[in-house]
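Thread title: Can someone regenerate the structure for this chain?

I was given the following input by a collaborator and told the matching structure tokens would be attached. They weren't. Posting the sequence so someone can regenerate them.
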Amino acid sequence: MLTCSLDNLINFDTIYMLNINGGGKITMMNALGRHILAEIYGCDTDILNNAELIEKIMVDSALTAGAEIREVAFHQFSPMGVSGVVVISESHLTIHTWPELGYAAVDVFTCGDKINPWDACNYMTEKFKSSHVTATEVKRGLFEHPVSVKVSSL
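Best answer:
Regenerated them for you:
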């Protein structure tokens, strides 16, 4: 698990993971994607309870990271809270907020190596005026050999 302040958010540029096999052999693992699970604390309550603003921030965070937006859906709960998803060609960004606690649970999942999910996560954290964040990066679709994936432009 990775804990960082706004002053030293960490960006990871590699999509490889080490796999230690039986006998102590170390091999590089190719990953199809990177999935950031972020716990964002100390956020501005008014921002976290504004579906339109959160939608704009999340769309802008995806664009800032270089992603291609496909679909967007957000829901405002009563009395408080917002859930939403930004579907991107490279996968998705999701959020669920607890404004009364100043907390947002955020996922940023990107496939391939052209989009850095940390760019989107860092952007959101800044715009939510967060005091701190705890985030974990999970490699998705691990293979011991290079994998070629055909991407279609729908």
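Strands lie at 2-4, 16-20, 26-41, 69-76, 82-88, 91-98, 103-111, 132-143.
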